[in-house]
Amino acid sequence: MNQGYVDLKIENKIATLTFHHPKGNSLPSTLIKEMIENFNRLSDKENVNVIILKSKGEQAFCAGASFDELIEIDNFEDGKKFFMNFANLINAIRNCKKLVIGRIHQKAVGGGVGLVSVCDYTLATKNASLKLSELALGLGPFVVGPPIERKIGKEAFVEMSLDCEWRSADWAKQQGFYHNVFETEAELDLNINKFADSLSERSQEALTSLKKVFWEGTDNWDELLEQRAENSGRLVVSEFTKKFIHNFKSKNDKE
């Protein structure tokens, strides 16, 4: 349990995939692989029309990939493998035949923003602020860049990538990250359940065909995200980035 978990429940053609990790719902490789396996299995499930993706707890929706694993990387091969985890998760959600609804109850950082952006339809609370922090670590949002840019456009992605500042849920709605924002989690859940219920009654064939339309133009992402993972894998073992990561960890350990 200390390493987190992924839980799956299916009811009335609605699959609810919940992840949790005690460190801000970050995603170590073990959890990412579990999520990928679940999305792959659900893709062909005849008794599932829609997937709700959510995290548990009152902290972040997702703090991104595991910092504990990031700090241990000391060679290019391990660096690429680390970033390929998120690349594979993005592609698993993109290729999943079922529509994915994101339930974003709290903030998302780095890879967590990528997870938000790859959902087909996303609802959030007013507390669900977003930040791309990779450049502050001497890296860059390379792997998560394509789904984010697809969602909000080049200029907004440039802003988020360079200033590493928090964006409010209202800003995220204006830019297209969120389809709607609610005051409370109770309101969020009420609206997500209502929307998922309506989709559960639709034609599965029609929903699958619609998802293909939504993701037109992304057929090259298997190769593109691997190239991005290689880029990050090279940077993460550079002296400049290792120093940034060490200073970041030292600062957080003191807080």
What does this structure look like?
The structure is a single chain. The protein is an alpha/beta fold and about 260 residues long. The protein has a single domain (about 5-185), classed as 2-enoyl-CoA Hydratase, Chain A, domain 1 (Alpha-Beta Complex). Helices cover about 50% and strands about 15% of the residues. The protein has eleven helices and eight strands. It has helices at about 30-45, 65-70, 75-95, 110-120, 145-150, 155-165, 170-175, 185-200, 205-215, 220-235, 240-255; strands at about 5-10, 15-20, 50-55, 100-105, 110, 120-125, 130, 180. Strands 1-2-3-4-6-8 form a six-stranded mixed sheet, sandwiched between helices. Strands 5-7 form a two-stranded parallel ribbon. Helix 1 runs parallel beside helix 3. The longest helix is centred in the middle third of the chain and has 20 residues, at about 75-95. The model has no long low-confidence stretch (mean pLDDT about 95).
